[in-house]
Predict the 3D structure of the following.
Amino acid sequence: MKKTIVICVSVLILLTIAAVCSILVYLGKDEPPPNDADLRLARLNIPDEENAFTYFDLASNALSYSDADREKTDSMLEGDEWDAEFVEELLSTNKEMFDFLAKGMACTEIQIPQIMNAYTQLPYLSPWRRIATLSKVRGLHLSKDGREKEAFEEALRIVEFGQMIERSRGVLIHHLVGIAVKKLGLNALREMLADTTLDEETLRGHIETLAGLMADEGALANALRMEYSVSAGTVDSVADGTMETGFGFSGRLLCLTLKPNKTKRMFAAQFRLLIDGTGKTLKEYTQEVSPRLAKASADEYDSKVALLLSGNMGGITLYRILMPAFGGLTKVKCQENVSVAGTRLLIALKCYKMRTGKLPRTLDALVPDYIDKIPADDFDGEPMRYSREKKLIYSVGENLQDDGGDAEKDIIVEIEF
């Protein structure tokens, strides 16, 4: 008797689950495919010998930079005693790597291998960051050896390397790695600037070079288009069963209640808004784009019942897993622009002080001899701030308030000359 009851209960549970799944499938009839041509980024047809990626990948393979080497160079970059003999040996060992890097930098185009979905591996990104660190070591080594002109050119090449990574037509992680690489080069320029003996004309040329290395908003928009393509590819891979979710029964239920076209339409709406925001200051983004993003989100399905009755529980779940990664994107872009603008102003101030023996009262004194206009603070759109008394260049940062160069609230660039 007891065995019969257990069997009946089990059958009842299975029938209930089957009925619920059937209802969900019925409720979740899919839509026609979205028109997402504007979000599909065509791949460039670049011969391998003209593609910078070819040489950057060869540079990664030729890199000889152990964890112990990296630990020691990191310590030196943070202020520990400089070991010239160690550095010379490390740079000599990596001569082939630097040769490949130079060949890549000489290319005008870059195209990374195709990314199919969120599980596609990107093994080359970590070595690119290590290459940039080693390039910074080489730049500082040249500076300490009295070869200042070459040292500054090396630092600028790091910034340009980062810009090329940003333009590699990859997903957002490529863009973020490019920004991190640029930051290494900008920091090297600032560190060498305090004691430089380079002439005014040379430094003025570096100001102009950096003017062309601000955040590439077109490249950022392309990275977002690639993210949409990867998200759409992930949706398709989950829907057709070619990509395991790793969630067991929940994963199978997710696939069963996933409506690919409806889900891709949700992604498309958000990515279009994100792309629209790439050229805006944080202030503009907060006022104009953020409210529209919130309105277009899946937050309306805030209860389990609403989620079940949506007919696209699997798609909404995927959407919520993949989309939050883009929340702070505009802040990162603004920080990048502020970092480049601050470095340009720092070099201009160095030139002014070399000529006059003192810092100017305001940044207006730099126009037009060193810069054509004061760079804008990408957070609020106003000119970058400056304090001669505190020896600071600064941005208002994400709170959008001028806190007088407070390092905890504003983004500062210290003037160390």
The CA atoms of residues 172 and 325 lie 9 Å apart.
